[in-house]
Amino acid sequence: MRFMFVIKASKDSEAGVMPPAEMISAMADYHGELAKAGVLLDGSGLQPSSKGWRITWSGGKKTITDGPFAETKELIAGYTIIQVKTREEAMEWANRFPNPQIENGQIEIRQMFDLEDFEPSEGIDRFREMGIAQDRP
């Protein structure tokens, strides 16, 4: 089972303010524990939305909008992806996650889909052939 820990953005992260050294150290320690336990698949911080863009489809038309985006509460500042055997194990790791903000931090934990969650189809077979979205050992 794969889970993504979504680190919510803050005014500071959206302004490009780098986290203090203590926070970076706590995150490095935590991710080191995940790696040592063999459950870490990936993790990274994200640049502010001012360096990104959105693609929106509406009425069959595609629109591209450059950042920044106003609603900080809807943005993410980073992520961590783990693979564990149970939801409870994911909850244990999530509860150990250090506060990702100086004060009012928030992370959201979401289970990721695996190919086995979908009905068989030609598209799913093509994903399987590419090795995309499969459970990893």
TrEMBL record:
Gene3D superfamilies: Dimeric alpha+beta barrel (3.30.70.1060). InterPro entries: Dimeric_a/b-barrel, YCII. Residues 1-114 form the YCII-related domain. It comes from the Bacteria. Belongs to the YciI family. This is YCII-related domain-containing protein. It comes from Aminobacter ciceronei.
